[in-house]
Amino acid sequence: xxxxxLAAAAAVLLAGSLSASAADKLKVGFIYLGPVGDFxxxxxxxxxxxxxxxxxxxxxxxxxxxxxxxxxxxxxxxEQLVRAGNKLIFxxxxxxxxxxxxVAKKYPNVHFEHATGFKHDKxxxxxxxxxxxxxxxxxxxxxxxxxAGVLGYIGSFPIPEVIMGINATILxxxxxxxxxKVKIIWANTWFDPGKEADAAKALLxxxxxxxxxxxxxxxxxxxxxxxxxxAFGQDSDMIKFGPKSQLTSIIDNWAPYYISRVKAELAGKWxxxxxxxxxxxxxxxxxxxxxxxxxxxxxxxDTEAAIVAGKLYPFKCPIVDQDGKTVDCKGGDHLDDGxxxxxxxxxxxxxxxxxxx
Amino acid sequence: MxxxxxxxxxxxxxxxxxxxxxxxxxxxxxxxxxxxxxLNLGVEGMMIVGAACGFGGAWLTGSILVGAxxxxxxxxxxSLIFALMTLGLAVNQVATGLALTxxxxxxxxxxxxxxxxxxxxxxxxxxxxxxxxxxxxGRILFGEDAFVYLSxxxxxxxxxxxxxxxxxxxxxxxxxxxxxxxxxxxxxLRIRLYxxxxxxxxxxxxxxYLPLAYTPFFIPAMTAGRGWIALALVVFASWxxxxxxxxxxxxxxxxxxxxxxxxLGLGIPSQFMSSLPYLATIIVLVLISxxxxxGSTAPAALGTVFVPDR
Amino acid sequence: xxxxxEKRAERSNAIAVVSPLIxxxxxxxxxxILFAILGKNPALALWVYFIDPLTDSYSLQxxxxxxxxxxxxxxxxxxxxxxxxxxxxxxxQFLIGAVAGSWLAVKTNGTDAGPWVLPVMLLxxxxxxxxxxxIPAICKVKFGxxxxxxxxxxxxxxxxxxxxxxxxxxxxPNGFNFPTTAEFDPVATVPVLFExxxxxxxxxxxxxxxxxxxxxxxxxxxxxxxxxxxxxPRAARFGGFxxxxxxxxxxxxxxxxxxxxxxxxxxxxVGHLQxxxxxxxxxxxxxxxxxxxxxxxxxxxxGLFLALTFIGGEQAQIAxxxxxxxxxxxxxxxxxxxxxxxxxxxxxxxLVSTSRQVPSGTA
Lengths: 357, 310, 363
Prior knowledge:
Low-confidence stretches of chain B: none
Strand order of the largest sheet of chain A: 2-1-3-4-5-11
Structural class of chain B: mainly alpha
Shape of chain B: globular
Distance between the termini of chain B: 70 Å
Helix content of chain B: over 70%
Number of helices of chain B: 12
Order of helices and strands of chain A: HEHEHEHEEHEHEHEHEEHEEHH
Shape of chain A: globular
Radius of gyration of chain A: 21 Å
Order of helices and strands of chain B: HHHHHHHHHHHH
Low-confidence stretches of chain A: 11-22
CATH superfamily of the largest domain in chain A: Response regulator
Number of strands of chain B: 0
Distance between the termini of chain A: 53 Å
CATH topology of the largest domain in chain A: Rossmann fold
Strand content of chain B: under 5%
Radius of gyration of chain B: 20 Å
Mean pLDDT of chain A: 87
Largest sheet of chain B: none
Oligomer: heterotrimer
Number of domains of chain A: 2
Largest sheet of chain A: 6 strands, parallel
């Protein structure tokens, strides 16, 4: 009775714009961690969702739930999307992993895609971006552009995704300046503009002259811009917050992946997968290289091309951790995916102690 | 980079001043409200609505001043809801304040939804050639934005009002013993209304400071608990303006310094550092309450309902 | 002419019965206006918010699941508020209870421990919550420090402590370094009541708590003392009631209930400990306590009603793209109206002519 009611509600509301009845469309649902206006992580998923709507027009109908906290509410929200008729559901944060799995087990005919996690199932695929490839390029640029030889890094939480970002950055920077140093501040939040701004100020005060972040707001870019220093954006192109400061930005480009998954679903060919794509598949896109001399720009573009061509691996062996031990190389000439996914050490050259060890 | 390098110290002090200013403004307003005998826990709600409206005003007109005025008006309107409930209908102040906070968070999200992703130009800083260029003290004393100077002027004005004017004396009387004040013919409810409105204006201004002078965009819930810290500051200050400014800058300092300690790589868990401002509040609350015999020196009628009998 | 508030000679029982209905009615009218301003069909929105979630068993179960921690915490809070002490830190006590109970779950994880694990976890949760709540209580009793602010500050401390534990010592070794403990073993999980739903034994415990509170407040001396200390402190002193002891007691009970709710939530619907598992239950419970007018049965109804609005709000997001902020606005407005209408129980509003006001002192 309830499903009919919701369908009726949808029909009443969308009466003007529907050209096919509600039952013919593929319904695709999204669960967002933050508000779509965060101009960061969630915003980029939303941008991709809108691209989906544009690409597929009337053959699909998309819905999203924003500000879904990662606790018990998540399970209910996911299930509500299922009960509202969504057949393909994207859950866009690590903390949704277990709730997605629970709901997936309950509804074997619905397909789920979970971002940045590691548990999966027959009807639950996982996907993630090799953002660390972009971090390596940023490190190369930073190594060249930093006059003081000190980078400032605003971390969110000491999870592998962030650690691998820091390591990739340093490895990239070390390739042009072996003596590069980094100062790290853990904001303990993904998103708090005031705190991010304060962290940027502290890093700059302490002598860093290039700022990078793994938090989601443009606050740090703004501060760098105010102080005439350089910075990298995160998640989206933040150039408008730092027209003379932004060197580049790692842009989460989910649209191609989402489009391909919806295509598969529409064709009835969706299968669970473990997608970890990077620059090559354009899941990770670099914002235009700006505010740097031409030779640095060329170096950045060459590095990017090398990574795309598979000739350069950010985590190529030998990798030495900060204790001086050489890390086991399980991927041949570079760390394998498992090692990267579970990364819990700093590479040599980072002086800080890893939190939580 | 040397820790005692004057340029480094100057920069840190500037950061601390900026971080403390919204706390100082909001707490100043709440101090007046509480001195009149009203406990308004809705500071966070009034601040965030002030932030949304302040940003909206500045973005629509391009003027920081208009933004600030929008923020102040928003804060006053929110406080009027509170006044209607607690002064007009004698409703429990704690519950009303909490409801105001929740309402404020919701309303600011709805108002701000249209502005997300936009940016404005930050409030300009003072520049007096010669004075501002003085090394070390120049930017601190003569290079701040208008809000910082306003916050100090506000505090001094409130101090003067409370302790040097008759009206201020009457307000304090209303807060200490509303029954006697009423018997003496003073319009207790009206005094409290003005005090609550002043508190709202300050909270709205403090909230507007965040998008207008701190980070030039609006984000839902960007006040991030500053309203609650402002409430704590009033108690920390024993309801006295002089102590309030010390408390506000102390808090700002703890917030900023914990980041510096991290950047120095000292290896202290960041969660512990993040919790310092809150632990500090508790410790200070206990210490100052202990220092007085027989409890804290709150206005004696704080939080109690007053309905004049006829 | 002006409107003034006058204290009634006696509580108006008629208003006491009718006021929640008036409040709900006024809230609905306000929400209809709000929906219209937002460009959404008001009738449909009201349906999706309030009626639709009641129409199938899944939503009903979810309402109960969401209401369980709210009701438990709110009952505890109501005891404090009746005694006129303001525990604002229930969220912190909720988190600490979850942490304490989870300690045992993490310690016995993977070992073949017996069914004693869960009951002990619940006891640990309640005990830890009680102790954590005693901190602000003791600060108030011994030092006169404001319990509103101390209990509130401790919320942030608890949150950061939880974060530290789950990112460090308690992190799941097989979890790729993500900040979460391992999934709790079945012996450490609160059992579900019906297959396929999420309704669990915590709901039964919540009902028992409601009944116990009702009995305490209406039939037991301690309950009477709590109410008198809050309503008439001087009379309480004359009656020899020890208000300090009552402050400590109410805070301890409130903390215990919040802590118990915390561990039940973690060992039940969530299944492991992770940062941010609480969507602010400790604060929402404050609203529930007031909406329920500090009465156990009222709190049960208010908790279910508020849970309904959460569930309805989520469905409204899906079906009508109504932003989640509207739910917050609704809850704030509802609380305002309930409080306002309730004030009419004790006071009445009268129109009087201003000419009656003669400044005192003139001949």
